[in-house]
Write a structure and sequence with these properties.
The complex is a heterodimer. Chain A contains 18 helices and 8 strands. Chain A has helices spanning 10-13, 19-22, 67-71, 76-84, 91-106, 112-140, 145-165, 187-209, 213-219, 227-232, 238-241, 249-252, 273-296, 322-333, 374-379, 382-386, 391-401, 405-409, and strands spanning 27-31, 43-49, 52-59, 174-175, 178-179, 340-349, 352-361, 368-372. In chain A, a hairpin with a 2-residue loop joins strand 2 (43-49) and strand 3 (52-59). The longest helix of chain A is centred in the first third of the chain and has 29 residues, at 112-140. By secondary structure, chain B is an alpha/beta fold. Chain B is elongated. Chain B is 24% helix and 27% strand. Chain B has one domain (3-141): 2-Layer Sandwich (Beta Polymerase, domain 2). Classes of the chains: A alpha+beta, B alpha/beta. At the A-B interface, helix 3, strand 6, strand 7, strand 8 and helix 15 of A face strand 3, strand 4 and helix 3 of B.
């Protein structure tokens, strides 16, 4: 079954570097995978002319965990747990993408309240993810203090997640057909106090970086890309919007009730590292606006679909309804079956377009799950962005793309 | 006539026999094409000013082993102007799992096709850099194929201890 072992010759790799490298005029340098500024395990092969980058060859796959393969062997609801582990800064966003795909495949309804809470939590997750971006981006460009401030605020958001789901990061809170359970008492007050305090914090981050000459010198005009190039190379999310193109899937193809909330799409002008930073700062403000609107208009009612063929019955029914016991048993042993067919769902993750291709074969396990992850797509543009920049700029560019290697390697 | 219906009609008009089937499922349209026609179809969908499918949103594959045709290559295109997705599909047999690359139309297909090559062993004709991308370069086999085992370690009990011990890869004297 397995083919014979493959040997790679130097000739096959020759096209990766310029001819000058073969004559020894330029230097080949390995960066990563264990480099603190490659945000995980990204390896780059750099060809350098003095300190200028001639070519840069990204090498990914060090964090490959076979998530797509493993999901094929689990029932639909159990496979959800794997999605938390892909993009570990956007766990709820991954849950949402997968749940939307399953719901579309089996044609399952989601109650209004569940949709609103999903939007609220995903927007909080976006802020948390952008805070990690800001923290590490600051650190990579030489600003130490912002790292500590950002992680302090992120902790507040993770506490909110812990309050809802019991876990800070690996939440698995969204389930096909709604949520695992309703949000607890005191949830609204906690979120409101966060909304109240956070605008001051954003202002503080901006005071630290936006006009800081050390920071602007390191980021303005670094790693610029045009809208056409960015789109051609599959760049989405904040890096694409930094080029001035206002494409956001939350606006263009609204899902989970995003069309009910009023928010703007922050865009940049030059598509450089600095614009990617300002876009993300703007997005944090917009996310706060959405969170506030959701809280103001939060509808009541159930948080799980009433379709017992797909969603387990509430605990209270198990004591007196035989039918509930049967459904409960069926769902937790075999799981629900999805029809033959395939769907593709795309959502806006903090890093860009997160797509889920899901195919069912009539059985209780997904026949094929594929995640089109934004980090995978953005890392592909790295050679273009890094060209002719200094080695020190690569660090700023990588962090401005905000890749998560768990997301790109799956 | 919606944009997607328009696109399907144009594909059928331009490619004729090469459009094998059109499927609609849960409001999403996917067009199955002959593998020879994939580049022409992408070109048509991208360059037609009315359709303007200018973004390759996803590219992946599905393995139907042991049935034939074994592989299905999945393309999801998006039009920023019309805010619509359309799916293209191409089926490949087990004997010749090969299809032309669409790199010349959507450059970002480069890595996605490398991933499909890595995971399924489908080769892309005229691809500029066909190497493995996720698995190590000397890896044997293609993990997402259905005949590739998931892999786990067998549990050793008293009755089968020696039998499994013989197969263990760790160093023995």
């Amino acid at each position: 079954m397995l083919e014979k072992s493959v040997e790679i010759t130097v000739d096959e790799l020759r096209h990766l570097v310029s001819d000058r490298a073969l004559e020894g005029e330029t230097m080949l340098l390995n960066m990563g995978p264990q480099h603190p500024s490659t945000h995980g395990v990204l390896r780059l092969l750099l060809e350098l002319d003095d300190e200028r980058v001639v070519t840069c060859v990204p090498d990914i796959g060090f964090l490959h965990t076979g998530i797509e393969k493993s999901m094929e062997t689990k029932a639909y609801e159990k496979a959800l747990v794997m999605t938390d582990r892909m993009d570990y800064l956007n766990n709820l966003g991954n849950n949402l993408c997968y749940c939307l795909a399953v719901e579309k495949l089996v044609d399952l309804d989601v109650p209004e309240r569940a949709m609103a809470i999903r939007v609220l939590l995903v927007e909080l997750q976006r802020i948390a993810s952008h805070l990690v971006f800001l923290a590490t981006h600051g650190l990579d460009t030489g600003a130490m203090s912002i790292f500590l401030y950002c992680f302090r605020e992120r902790e507040v958001i993770l506490d909110i997640f812990e309050m809802c789901s019991g876990a800070r990061m690996m939440t698995s809170f969204f389930r096909p057909g709604g949520l695992w359970r309703d949000v607890p008492d005191g949830f609204e007050e906690t979120v409101r106090s966060f909304i109240e305090s956070f605008p001051k914090r954003i202002k503080m981050y901006e005071d630290l970086l936006t006009k800081n000459p050390i920071y602007t010198h390191r980021t303005k005009g670094i790693g610029a890309i045009s809208s056409e190039e960015a789109l051609k190379w599959g760049l989405t999310g904040p890096p694409l919007r930094a080029t001035g193109l206002a494409w956001d899937l939350r606006k263009s193809n609204p899902y989970s009730g995003y069309d009910r909330y009023d928010f703007d799409i922050p865009v940049g002008v030059n598509g450089d590292t600095y614009d990617r930073y300002t876009v993300r700062i703007g997005e944090m403000r917009q996310s706060l606006r959405i969170v506030e609107q959701v809280l103001d208009t939060l509808p009541g009612g159930p948080v799980r679909s009433n379709n017992r063929k797909f969603v387990p019955p509430p605990r209270s029914e198990l004591g007196h309804s035989m039918e509930a016991v049967i459904h409960h048993f069926k769902l937790w042993t075999e799981g629900f079956s999805a029809p033959k067919g395939s769907v593709f769902v795309a959502v806006e993750s903090p890093r860009g377009e997160l797509g889920c291709y899901l195919e069912g074969d009539g059985g209780p396990k997904p026949y094929r799950v594929h995640f089109r992850t934004p980090s995978f797509a953005t890392l592909q543009t790295l050679p273009m962005l890094c060209k002719d920049h200094l080695v020190a700029d690569i660090v700023a560019i990588i962090s401005s793309l905000d890749p998560v290697l768990g997301d790109s390697d799956r | 006539m919606t944009i997607v219906e328009n696109a399907v009609a144009k594909l059928q008009r331009e490619l004729g026999e090469s459009v094998l089937s059109v499927e609609e499922f849960r409001g999403q349209t996917s067009v199955t094409l002959d593998r020879e026609a994939i580049v022409t179809a992408c070109q048509l969908l991208r360059d037609d000013p009315e359709l303007d499918f200018n973004f390759l949103a996803a590219l992946t594959a599905v393995d139907y082993w042991p049935s034939e045709p074994r592989f299905k290559i999945v393309y999801e295109l998006y039009s920023l102007a019309n805010k619509e997705f359309i799916g293209l599909r191409a089926q490949l047999s087990n004997e010749s799992p090969e299809i032309s690359t669409i790199e010349s139309i959507y450059p970002n297909a480069n890595w996605h096709e490398r991933e499909v090559f890595d995971m399924f062993g489908v080769t892309f004709k005229d691809h500029s850099d066909q190497r493995r991308i996720i698995m190590p370069y000397d890896w044997e086999g293609h993990p997402l194929r259905k005949d590739y085992p998931l892999g786990y370690e067998e549990v050793q009990f008293t009755f089968n201890f020696d039998e499994i011990d013989k197969r263990k890869p760790y160093a023995k004297k």
